[in-house]
TrEMBL record:
It comes from Philodulcilactobacillus myokoensis. PROSITE patterns: GLYCOSYL_HYDROL_F25_2. This is Lysozyme. Belongs to the glycosyl hydrolase 25 family. Pfam families: Glyco_hydro_25 (PF01183). The gene is lys. GO terms for molecular function: lysozyme activity. GO terms for biological process: carbohydrate catabolic process; cell wall macromolecule catabolic process; peptidoglycan catabolic process. Keywords: Membrane, Transmembrane, Transmembrane helix. The chain crosses the membrane at residues 20-37.
């Protein structure tokens, strides 16, 4: 009895079917993974009902009224970085944001390579009287590490100078570990927890950076922004506003 021969055409067809099945399987896995990720992101967002965004010139033109209509309660606008750099869109963003009904904050990116006094001059010159109503933000990063003695002293000096000049509280956008270094020196400020540090815990945080590129629908178009949230419920948010938000700058 002759053994049947499997021709090359059949083998090629069989391999092609397997490739298509593998491709379809990968697509299904990707779709399920994306769906689970979006569900996780939404669940995480649902934990924090009070949300806001931070913006700079790289975000381009934003319709702040439309942004407020996506249930954003506050916005932080970058003003300066270091001793020289100022955000090209700061004044325009600030002026257009005033009619949005969002609480406005401004922030400075602190540089350990720049003179403290020069950074203060840069920030003061750029914001003038436009400091919003939220605590003034200071963004601090050190490649994930702690600050040495000199770095910490400079940062503390800057924080105290800003608090004294503007008679306002300060919101330090940083890691839990750097915030702990600050508070151990008995300097009072709020923690805006860096998104990369969420695994460290958030019990000390007032604001939490949730996602650096959250996609929001503004006037039918997708716009990526950095999304943050208040670490508490609506009652706690209202208490925070009453105690820490400048009433003179809310109108």
């Amino acid at each position: 009895m002759k053994r049947s021969q499997i021709g090359p055409q059949y083998i090629h067809k069989h391999h092609l079917i397997l490739k298509w099945l593998a491709f379809i399987f990968i697509i299904i896995i990707l779709i399920l993974s994306f769906s689970m990720y979006r569900k996780y992101q939404q669940t995480r967002l649902d934990v924090y009902p009070i949300r806001g965004v931070s913006v700079d010139q790289q975000d381009g033109y934003l319709d702040f009224v439309s942004l407020a209509n996506t249930n954003q309660k506050f916005i932080y606008i970058r003003a300066t970085q270091g001793s020289i750099y100022s955000d090209d869109d700061f004044n325009n963003n600030y002026q257009r944001c005033e009619g949005s009904n969002m609480l406005i904050g401004v922030y400075h990116i602190f540089s350990f390579d720049s003179n403290i006094h020069d950074q203060e001059v840069n920030f003061n010159r750029e914001v003038s009287g436009n400091t919003g109503s939220m605590p003034i933000g200071i963004k601090v990063s050190n490649n994930g590490g702690n600050l040495n003695h000199s770095q910490l002293s400079n940062l503390l000096h800057f924080i105290q100078d800003i608090k004294q000049r503007y008679h306002r509280s300060v919101m330090v956008w940083t890691t839990q570990s750097i915030y702990t270094q600050i508070t151990r020196r008995h300097v009072k400020c709020f923690l805006w927890l860096n998104g990369s540090s969420l695994k460290e815990g958030s019990k000390d945080a007032t604001l939490i950076e949730l996602q650096a590129n959250e996609s929001l629908q503004l006037d039918g178009q997708s716009q990526n922004v950095t999304q943050s949230a208040f670490n508490g419920n609506k009652t706690q948010w209202n208490r925070f506003i009453d105690q820490n938000v400048s009433q003179s700058n809310q109108d």
